[in-house]
Amino acid sequence: MLERLFKLKENGTNVRTEVVAGVTTFMTMAYIIFVNPDILSATGMPFGAVMTATALSAGITTILAGFMANYPYALASGMGLNAFFAFVVAEQAGWQAALGVIFLSGILFLVLALTGAINILDAAIPQSLKRAVGVGIGLFIAFIGVKNAGIIQGDPATIVARGNFAAAGPALALIGLLITAVLMARNVRGSILLGILITTLIGIPMGVTKIAGSIVGKPASLAPIAFKLDFKGAFSLGFMTIFSFWFVDVFDTVGTLMGTASRANMLDEKGQLPRIKEMMTVDAIGTCLGAALGTSTVTTYVESSAGIAEGGRTGLTAVVIGILFLVSLVFAPLAGMIPTEATAPALIIVGVLMMLPVKDIDWSDFSEAFPAFITIAMMPFAFSISDGISAGFISYVVVKALSGKAREIHWLVYVLAAISVIHLIPGLF
Prior knowledge:
By secondary structure, the chain is mainly α. It contains 20 helices and four strands. The protein has one domain (2-214, 230-424). The radius of gyration is 21 Å and the shape is globular.
């Protein structure tokens, strides 16, 4: 049956290899089960309910990817966008409106994926801006990580300042950061997850980690957050906010799929990924499902490359990952023990990993470098992904057009720049 469903022999793999690959990928991304509810609970959403939504949406969507696309990719609530959800959008209009934004961005993604219009947008948006968005998000979530850890704190004179490293919380976070960095440097599989767990244990004698009565239990109810979508509030935030979630989800997914597939020789003779439309459709469905259940954008994880490196080539790997996410639901009490100081290092480490695309930006061409820099810098400085994307589009059009390179600008980028102006200066028109 497995051979018939996943074509294992045709893809040069077997059941054992696929299972090992699935376990490997799950170990590298299981940290999201703990980190995502920790971030989203800052909005007032119940930690336990968000954990249930995170694991359930990841499990269902990843299994769906296995059957629909027959690829070894895992999906879960994405880092970066969950921070944007919690600390920017929910701050402005409430978490219910933020869920509405996520759902609408998923619907937009689904329509464009099914119609093929997404290819037009992909061709129109400059590579430099696509890469800059990922790097900017990396800085954004790293900033949130050091803030949550108490490594930095607000200061009326200098805006930010170093925290009190002698205090137990920041000290534990720094210890966890160094432990995770060493594990990453030694290429230990599941480094981020291990870092979180080790830091949590160290936090017990330091008085930061609070011991739970048990490590297993009944999953928390979804009732407080499921189907609490506020579409009126979502629309009040403007199109650019919805577009920002959509933009990051789409191009992060495309980059993940193409990057991992090329390294695994999964592309066809034309350099294209077969069934990419199915994967993009699953990603869009996952985003809508996640919002309905009560979590932030569900997207394809680059950590899938860990399982692919172990030989995973089919949807069976994805099914194994999905099942493990569903099984993790019974370990909710364990997640409740993990302090923010143990998850903050994960945000910083993920920020480091998201720096990679910066080397592919053409810094020798100032008309490319300046918009890319503005995009990257504005995200942490303005504490907003959408503001960074908007500033990037506007600066790209202005600098290119006034430096005699207007022909390099796709007409759609002009449209996006105009929308960006409305987003940044809402009272202008």
